[in-house]
Amino acid sequence: MLDVIVSNMALTWLITAVALGIAELLIPGVFLIFVAIAAAVLAAVTFAFPDLPLAVQLAVFGAWSVMTVMIGQSWYRDYPVHTSDPMLNDRAARLVGEQVVVTTPIVAGRGRIRIGDGEWPATGPDTPEGTTVRIVKFDGVTAVVERT
Predict the structure, then answer these.
(1) Would you tell me how many other CB atoms lie within 10 Å of the CB of residue 148?
(2) Could you tell me which of 124, 131, 125, 126 has the C-alpha nearest to residue 102?
(3) If exposure means fewest CB atoms within 10 Å of the residue's CB, which of 30, 31, 49, 140 is most exposed?
(4) What element of type H or E holds 46?
(5) What digits encode the pLDDT tens for the residues 46-61?
């Protein structure tokens, strides 16, 4: 079986490309598709040059993988995916503007607020417990608040 695989590396690289493409569909991450493209290119190269040593094939695969990932990064930077909800995956940004309640008084600029069912660290002007404040921004995991 190993002899068949080694003797027909073009088919092996093509199967690898298809498997990586299917994996990208099942577990989307916009990364495996570029490695799949590299494997498909190598399938074409090994079809044209069937006696290419395995070490050279792996080097070519590595080079094409790096190149296709860099092209993909450039593409997504130049042509970002637009959405009707640009903060879809940015939970903190979605909370900016929300009114929340201070649970631990903000003293000397530090305290805690309730967001949903959890408490978060907060910074802002000195504010007593139970006061409603508005989230202005996040500094890491700390909410920056102002009085409403």
Answers:
(1) 9
(2) 131
(3) 140
(4) helix 32-48
(5) 999 999 999 999 999 9
- Report d(CA 100, CA 103) in Å as an integer: 9
Q: Which tens digit of pLDDT belongs to each residue from 85-132?
A: 777 777 888 899 999 999 999 999 999 999 989 999 999 999 999 999
Rg (CA), the chain: 26
**Rounded distance between C-alpha atoms, residue 66 and residue 111, angstroms:** 46
3-state DSSP assignment of residue 30? coil
- How far apart CA 136 and CA 148 sit, in angstroms, is 11
Would you say the pTM of this structure is higher than 0.70?
no
Assigned token pair, 42: 């190598």
